[in-house]
């Protein structure tokens, strides 16, 4: 779908079902630096291979669009670096691997991917937990819970995904503040956004705690090209515990031990609980290493000093070495901050700039 709207601030066109191939550059700027002038993109459904509807045969219709002022990248922690890699902004050796013409040799691209890693506890109670989703048909005909939410934003779909949460400070917190965030629920299990997570089903006697390790010590994550094909998903590796391993593991292990102590002290009728994760036959630390996940990626296109070797954008969100290109979402955070706080700060600053 393409939708063009005209208002007091000008005309803009939204193009859904579109996949960017690359940003186009011209060398005609007065600064002598490459200038972003537009994009090439494909139009069609499910073109990106991360889309489970993609069957490998979609090719899309080729299009291009020009930019009269600036190109603004906001593709997220994975796809912003992907697009700029494909556009020739990346470490030179990485571009040469895939015969992509070099626009700017920018060593900081592909590095610094961060997130607050998570571990967790899953148990099964002696009896089932009551479910607020009783009567919901989900994707089956009827949709009573969806209809209720649409009418007055109430009902099961009006509540958060996890019904309980808490904060706790571990012995290795960097300051006086909590460095563990717990969220959980009865009758459900959350182990991250693995393929098929949205349709996974667990016994109604299940209870989970997901334990988020804040104050992450690890900045070793990467987002790299697999090929020069824009439909390909990049190589994404958080390299959890590659840096600050003992610190992060200690905090998460304390978090797991505390969660288990809650279950062990709960009597009938829900108790006793059967421990599912971490498994009994391995240590808590090994269980964390085996099962760690995350879901708030950030910092893969970091901000920093203009022309600095460890930064991709300057303090005004301008991409290093080129003109008319800005990056305006969470990847520009140099160090991981709590996700909502980081996004609010970035959006506020960028709104003022533009």
UniProtKB/TrEMBL annotation:
Glucose-methanol-choline oxidoreductase C-terminal domain location: 220-331
Glucose-methanol-choline oxidoreductase N-terminal domain: residues covered: 22-116
A GO MF label: flavin adenine dinucleotide binding
Keywords associated with the record: FAD, Flavoprotein
Reported cofactor(s): FAD
Sequence similarity: Belongs to the GMC oxidoreductase family.
Gene3D superfamilies in UniProt: FAD/NAD(P)-binding domain, Glucose Oxidase, domain 3
Pfam families named among the record's database cross-references: GMC_oxred_C, GMC_oxred_N
Domain of life of the organism encoding this protein: Eukaryota
Family matches, as InterPro entries: FAD/NAD-bd_sf, GMC_OxRdtase, GMC_OxRdtase_N, GMC_OxRtase_C
SUPFAM superfamilies for this protein: FAD-linked reductases, C-terminal domain, FAD/NAD(P)-binding domain
Protein name, as recorded: GMC oxidoreductase
Organism of derivation: Zopfia rhizophila CBS 207.26
């Amino acid at each position: 779908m393409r939708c063009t709207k005209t208002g007091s601030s000008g005309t803009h066109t939204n193009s859904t079902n579109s996949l960017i191939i690359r940003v186009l550059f011209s060398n005609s700027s007065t600064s002598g630096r490459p200038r972003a002038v537009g994009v090439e993109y494909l139009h069609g459904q499910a073109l990106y291979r991360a889309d489970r509807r993609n069957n490998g045969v979609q090719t899309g219709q080729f299009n291009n669009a020009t930019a009269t002022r600036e190109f603004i990248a906001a593709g997220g922690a994975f796809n912003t670096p992907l697009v700029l890699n494909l556009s020739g902004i990346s470490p030179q050796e990485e571009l040469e691997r895939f015969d992509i013409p070099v626009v700017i040799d920018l060593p900081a691209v592909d590095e610094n991917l961060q997130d607050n890693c998570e571990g967790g506890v899953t148990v099964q109670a002696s009896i089932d937990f009551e479910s607020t989703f009783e009567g919901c048909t989900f994707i089956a005909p009827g949709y009573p819970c969806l209809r209720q939410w649409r009418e007055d934003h109430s009902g099961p779909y009006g509540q958060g995904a996890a019904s309980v949460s808490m904060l706790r400070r571990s012995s290795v917190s960097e300051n006086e503040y909590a460095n563990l965030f717990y969220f959980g629920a009865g009758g459900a299990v959350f182990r991250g956004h693995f393929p098929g997570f949205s349709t996974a089903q667990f016994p109604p006697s299940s209870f989970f705690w997901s334990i988020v390790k804040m104050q992450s010590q690890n900045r070793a994550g990467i987002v790299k090209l697999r090929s020069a094909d824009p439909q390909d998903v990049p190589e994404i590796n958080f390299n959890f515990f590659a840096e600050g391993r003992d610190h992060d593991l200690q905090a998460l292990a304390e978090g797991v031990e505390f969660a288990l102590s809650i279950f062990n002290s709960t009597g009938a009728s829900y108790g006793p609980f059967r421990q599912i994760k971490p498994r009994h036959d391995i240590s808590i630390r090994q269980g964390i290493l085996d099962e760690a996940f995350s879901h708030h990626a950030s910092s893969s296109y970091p901000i920093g000093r203009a022309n600095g070797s460890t930064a991709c954008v300057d303090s005004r969100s301008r991409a290093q070495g080129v003109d008319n290109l800005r990056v305006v979402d969470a990847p520009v955070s140099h160090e991981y901050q709590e996700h909502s706080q980081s996004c609010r700060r970035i959006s506020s600053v960028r709104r003022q700039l533009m």
